[in-house]
Amino acid sequence: MTKPEQRRRTAKHRLLQAADELFYNEGIHTVGIDRVIAHAGVAKGSLYYSFTGKDELVHEYLTHRHGKWAERVTAGIEAHTDPRARILAVYDVLGTLFAQPDYRGCAFMNATAEAAPDSVEAQAATTFRAWVHKLFLDLATDGDTDDPKQLAETLVLLYDGAVATAQMDKAPEAARTARRTAELVLDNAGMPHVKAGAKAL
Amino acid sequence: MTKPEQRRRTAKHRLLQAADELFYNEGIHTVGIDRVIAHAGVAKGSLYYSFTGKDELVHEYLTHRHGKWAERVTAGIEAHTDPRARILAVYDVLGTLFAQPDYRGCAFMNATAEAAPDSVEAQAATTFRAWVHKLFLDLATDGDTDDPKQLAETLVLLYDGAVATAQMDKAPEAARTARRTAELVLDNAGMPHVKAGAKAL
DNA sequence: CTTTATTTAGACAGATCTGTCGGTTACCCT
DNA sequence: AGGGTAACCGACAGATCTGTCTAAATAAAG
């Protein structure tokens, strides 16, 4: 709006981008739609033309966060073939996340913190958590261990621990701590070390 | 208020109690002072007579949470003398916390999620985190290990992981997962197992 | 070019939220 | 009894927040 430069993307897209930045950085309840439309450089009418209301905007914000994060994690995993390396890769991706200067924790944990039990936030958080669990359960099942389910639970806990510690203490190194501990857990579960190459990519 | 029964405790005390319940269960930004005074059965004037404003109420809410939790953890620790047992006791206390039906995560993590950088919430969270780190660093130093600092970091990560997982998945068993993993970490750090009794309390 | 979809600006309603103020009532201590 | 503190009630100001609406400008598409 500031300048009559040609409209970059659609209003809906810009709203989503503004919502992503503001909701993540400052919290969902904290940020009003006035702030969102101002940051997007868009009229208020466009928000209610593109979305049914703030709830839908929040829902799409979380959905997109989920999608982007899943892509990033999947890419990190798929760079390796060895089951053990694929698991550890998740914590390396976490490390790159924590290194971002604007890191402010998991969008779903933060949303849950201020969400009512049956809100869109809680809904999105539930499907996100299902994804996290499936992720680690699949990875753990690919390894040759006694109790992949318990292993997966432990890996999820290390994942959550890294995310929370990194946020609360502004400590990006939590990713390495989690990774180191994960290695210990994998050793204990009888997950074999890398045999040959697999440094793919 | 409902009945003219003799005033139970002071208005300030009831406000604090109401704030504790509502802020913890529903979030700080979500709950307005009208809800707080209604739940406390107290006039609005009493709030601004006892506190300078909502911020102070929030600050005292978090301070009291900190104090009560510290007491509880300390009590759990002091039931043991063996360094290893004292560390593991923390995760057992977490287990009793998660078992509470109203458990909704760490008040300080939740507060941080919706807090501005220099808010009272952020302030209280900082001193809480300092306490957590000192707690584990002291415990780790008491054990006879090579790198107590790194050990403490790992234990904090497991603590945070348990707290976060238990909240997100409504999974109280995360405490046992964290404890099990902590044992593994302690073994690896060369922390000796219980020699004799210490099953105090 | 003409129709349709998208976007804009701003005013407005209705709710809610924090904080203030004035006047009144109950309690405690001396 | 008297004086001060604590608590009450309710109304109000001012801000903010979600959502609606109108009417016009602009883009896209046939």
Q: What tags apply to this protein structure?
A:
201 residues; disordered N terminus; DNA-binding; mainly alpha; homodimer
Which structural class should the secondary elements of chain A be placed in?
Answer: mainly alpha
Fraction of residues in H or I helices of chain A: 55-70%
In terms of DSSP E residues, the strand content of chain A is under 5%
Largest sheet of chain A: none
Report the oligomer. homodimer
Helices and strands of chain A, in N-to-C order?
HHHHHHHHH
- Secondary structure tally, helices of chain A: 9
Question: Runs of chain A with pLDDT <50, length 5+?
Answer: 1-7
Number of strands of chain A: 0
Rg of chain A (CA only): 19 Å
How far the N terminus sits from the C terminus of chain A, by CA atoms, comes to: 42 Å
Mean pLDDT of chain A: 92
Which shape of chain A, going by the Cα principal axes? elongated
Largest interface: pair, residues per side:
A-B, 41 and 41 residues
